[in-house]
Amino acid sequence: MDRRATFDNLWLAGALVAPQILLVVVFFYWPTMQALYWAFSTQPPFGGTNQWVGWQNFEQIFSDAVYWNSVRVSIVFAILSTALSIGMALLLALMIDRQLAGHKAYRFVYFWPYAIAAPAVGLAFRFIFAPDAGFVSAINQLAPNLWNPALKGWDAMLLIVIANSWKMMAYNFIFFLAALQSIPRSLVEAAAMDGSGVLRRARDIQIPLLAPTLFFLLVINITESFVDSFGIVDITTGGGPARATDLMVFKIYSDGFKGLDYSMAAAQSIVLMLLVIGLTFVQFRYVEKRVHYA
Amino acid sequence: MEHSLELAQISKAFGKTGVLSEIDLAVQPGEFLSLVGPSGCGKSTLLRIISGLERQDAGQVRIAGRTVDALSPRARNIAMVFQNYALYPHMSAAENIALPLMVDRLSLFERLPLIRHLSPRRKRIEAAISGEIGKVAEALQIEPLLARKPGQLSGGQRQRVALARAMVRQPSLFLMDEPLSNLDAQLRVHMRDELTDLHRRLGATFIYVTHDQIEAMTMSTRIAMLDGGRLAQIGSPADLYERPASLTVARFIGSPAINVLPARLDPQGHVILGTLPTGLVVPDGMAGPVSLGLRPEHIRLHAACDRAMPMATLRRSEHHGADRLLHLDLAEDRQTGLIVRIPQDETGQFQPGETYGIGFAPEKAHLFDASGLRMATRTVPARIGAAA
Lengths: 294, 388
Ligand SMILES: Nc1ncnc2c1ncn2[C@@H]1O[C@H](COP(=O)(O)OP(=O)(O)OP(=O)(O)O)[C@@H](O)[C@H]1O
Ligand SMILES: [Mg+2]
Hints:
The structure holds 2 protein chains of 2 kinds.
Chain A: H1 10-39, E1 41-42, E2 51-52, H2 56-62, H3 65-97, H4 103-111, H5 118-128, H6 153-181, H7 185-193, H8 198-209, H9 211-227, H10 230-236, H11 248-258, H12 262-287
Chain B: E1 5-14, E2 17-27, E3 32-36, H1 43-51, E4 58-63, E5 66-67, E6 78-81, H2 93-105, H3 122-140, H4 155-167, E7 173-177, H5 185-202, E8 205-209, H6 213-219, E9 222-227, E10 230-235, H7 237-242, H8 247-252, E11 259-265, E12 270-273, E13 276-281, E14 288-294, E15 299-302, E16 311-320, E17 323-330, E18 337-343, E19 355-360, E20 366-368, E21 378-379
Helix pairs in contact in B: 2-3, 2-4, 3-4
The complex binds adenosine-5'-triphosphate and magnesium ion.
């Protein structure tokens, strides 16, 4: 039962897949190979070709407290923004799924944030949360500098967490809503007949049945918060104050393109890549086992 | 005694399409009431209105004498068995059955992981619950299945688990929406018995939706037939069979379906079939077309060719166990088919292709006016051509 279509003409087959292969090679494998090359070599201070230095770059970053700070900051950021974006998206999707008034309009509106580029999100949040002029500055009237992301590390962290979750929430929302709507209505109705209120219905029936979606979004959100948060950090906090928001991906950029130390940046990006691969592996290996695919 | 359920003037429309109009219904405690009717006539909608899953546009629902219109489904204390059973796929059968009790007796916090261990009464309540599950499971003979998930159960087993989940709360009112329609024919007959039995044992009120008239006839104490969003008739199975209030009811109840022959009233009110008087008279009927309904078992075939009888040709004869069904075509220009049920031992006399005279006892015939409503008739002694 071999139902795959086969090509007799290998040249034609090759020509058909070539564009795709070319894209993947040019934009993925080639940069990765370049990064690997940079990571294991270093540029002589006064020009010339790179010299092979083995693990030296890695040894250097792992013995650097600033690097470990960025790892810690990244993990905090990933946990907070994943929790916030998944939690909020789930809440909104559950509310929309109950078809409260205006649910059709909300469905569209909630997806829009995902269509906005990260730097634009960052810019918007920078204004909203500006300590002197933004909406949130109102709370500074209670006490001076109650809110100041330019001075306080945790304020800055909160700012990028909120901005990133706001964007990811839109994406998560669509998946949750689709999954909720694929749960047979009669199950939710049966639970209502069995005496469950809205909260218990969500806890007993809907959320357990959403487990596969939840798992998928967990993987996506954690990965995204590690690798795709550069734009927001760059525009809102620039990694500060005092490196409180110096995420790994932002540090790669600032070391590489501001500090012009390509080798260190490349080594860090290899570490980040391995970290993301490892996390994804762990999630599939251990978390997925606890998911019921109904 | 208080009615178990009372519906007063219930109306419902989805957008512009009216589904139910002015349904009045009163159900006694302990009754087994079947709601029947053709597909799309609003049976499920009515059930959902009773359960509170759907809100009526007008009218009132009273359960045990209490108006429940403002109450959510959970506050009405009724149980419902869904057509697809609606078992929770991620829970075992036992957990499915336990859920209504858990929700009822434990707070949300007492069911959260870790936090629940703080509650001193949780253990006791859970023990009581599993005792009750055991009892229900025993009654329905599903003890060996309790650990399985719904996906690992057969249709009949799922059905029983769904019943158990409905029973465990001991509601006074059970709603069932075509609970047997997903089962194969044999299992359906078996579950029919079990449900009737269960109804007797529990003594609770059952409202049972079906579009299978045999289920309705065999299980119910009363049948309510919906047609076009209205209550066409309500009564015992025998009432609906023997005195159908309309042509629709007559056609729906009974298998094989009733034979309907076009007839007319002459100015004196005599019912004329073709050119022959039938012995039926409508006391003050207006001349015009009417329909004559004859159950298959009420028609007699006569081999002797008496010209004063309508004639029909035997097309086909079917073996149905104890009975035989004869399919005939009415002679003359009418193409009307006719089905006659006769006991097996009388079949020898009838040969396909032969023509027979049609006779019936006028008091067994049903007469419906042009709009399909039942007409009161009496018989006259001079039964011209209609020998019994
Ligand atoms: N949510 C809804 N929105 C719009 N129309 C609906 C809705 N639910 C039911 N209807 C319509 O109401 C009518 C009655 O539906 P209902 O499900 O009560 O029929 P039923 O008698 O249960 O039929 P069946 O025997 O096929 O189950 C149908 O014409 C159906 O299309
Ligand atoms: Mg229905």
